[in-house]
Recover the amino acids of this structure.
């Protein structure tokens, strides 16, 4: 009988792994993919979806259809725990045995009291349509988090307002500066962009508690109809619940994307701590780049071969939508913005999604 590789989570790395596996004439293993929803929304298009630039079907991959086209079993359920001793994954519906397991579970919102009960989230990604709908009905919105996700989302909300001739109060509260990973000159441009669009922002203002329609910070209490939590990537609870977590709750993986404590467990994307570079940014770019190494190493480890290292690039190009089909990009100290940048982003994002859409609907 062929060995079983269980893929937990339909994150970027697992979707691309499946996509490549579909092209392979011979499979070294049976794959099982487990994810709580048949749809996976692509983060590069979240802001465009919130703004109304992209339709739902353009923004998401039908994971169940992709698995069916690949001849792979899909279980629509959340992983509730991993029993590494028994080599079993427990889900909300059944237990699944594995020879090799890979976790690509993304990040969770967390770390501050009241988030779960009182804040909206886009994680897991299938929450996107409902969250966007709720934000559409609000008159005032606080976004906790001034990284790329918070900035893009604030500008998307304002661009939608301009389109439908309405106006929501949008405020970003962030613990450090806006876009902390960007050079100072780029941050300055983003501050100007936000002000020009009527987005209020408070830097060095961490949210310490979320209550219904209200957030607390060390400097003041802020009120709004809705609070959207986009402040950093927290660890999915299932990793700690399974006894696999590091101090911060993430799965610690070696340069081979292999869990430090068990050679049969691998991981990629936001849910891991990459031990060679523990501060590695948590974003879709790295999750995508990890896919080929993850796929190769799962197969090599089944065959008892040497594993390949994942070597993250030091710098990557970040492109943020500014709303109104304009975008801003930066890489290292360089930055640019405008319609051409948006066209570039749109092309990259559509290309990424087109390959998965076509794979999920063979013959279309
Ligand atoms: C508004 C916004 C905009 C962003 N824009 C960008 C961008 O333009 N570019 C970029 O690179 N990054 C962007 N990011 C960050 C990006 O979303 C994440 O870094 C990226 O999605 C991480 O990918 P991943 O593969 O680790 O996991 P994800 O893409 O988050 O996927 C995780 C998967 O695991 C599943 N899952 C979760 N819990 C369980 C469970 N218990 N059992 C089984 N399955 C589970 C989920 O349903 C999902 O299928 C943005 C984030 C936000 C919030």
């Amino acid at each position: 009988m062929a060995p079983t590789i269980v893929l937990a989570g339909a994150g970027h790395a697992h979707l691309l792994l499946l996509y490549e596996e579909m092209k392979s004439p011979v499979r070294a293993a049976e794959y099982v993919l487990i994810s709580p929803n048949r749809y996976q929304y692509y983060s590069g298009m979240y802001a465009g979806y919130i703004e109304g630039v992209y339709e739902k079907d353009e923004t998401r991959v039908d994971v169940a259809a992709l698995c069916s086209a690949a001849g792979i079993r899909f279980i629509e359920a959340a992983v509730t725990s991993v029993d590494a001793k028994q080599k079993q994954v427990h889900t909300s519906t059944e237990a699944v045995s594995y020879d090799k397991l890979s976790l690509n579970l993304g990040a969770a919102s967390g770390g501050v009291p009241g988030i779960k009960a009182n804040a909206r989230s886009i994680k897991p990604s299938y929450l996107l349509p409902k969250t966007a709908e709720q934000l559409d009905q609000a008159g005032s919105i606080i976004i906790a988090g001034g990284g790329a996700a918070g900035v893009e989302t604030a500008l998307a909300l304002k661009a939608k307002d301009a389109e439908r001739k309405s106006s929501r109060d949008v405020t970003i509260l962030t613990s450090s500066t806006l876009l902390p990973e960007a050079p100072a000159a780029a941050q300055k441009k983003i501050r100007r962009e936000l002000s020009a669009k009527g987005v209020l922002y408070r830097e060095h203002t961490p949210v310490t508690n979320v209550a219904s329609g209200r957030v607390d910070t060390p400097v003041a209490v802020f009120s709004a109809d809705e609070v959207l939590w986009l402040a950093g990537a927290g660890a999915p609870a299932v990793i700690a619940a399974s006894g696999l977590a590091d101090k911060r709750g993430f799965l610690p993986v070696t340069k081979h994307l292999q869990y430090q404590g068990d050679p049969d467990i691998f991981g990629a994307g936001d849910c891991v701590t990459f031990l060679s570079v523990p501060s590695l940014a948590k974003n879709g770019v790295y999750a995508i780049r990890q896919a080929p190494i993850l796929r190769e190493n799962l197969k090599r480890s089944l065959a008892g071969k040497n594993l390949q290292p994942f070597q993250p690039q030091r710098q990557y190009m970040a492109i943020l939508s500014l709303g109104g089909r304009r975008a801003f990009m930066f890489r290292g100290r360089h930055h640019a913005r405008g319609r051409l940048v948006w066209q570039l982003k749109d092309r990259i994002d559509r290309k990424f999604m087109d390959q998965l859409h076509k794979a999920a609907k063979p013959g279309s």
User: Anything to note?
Assistant: The first helix runs from residue 12 to 23.
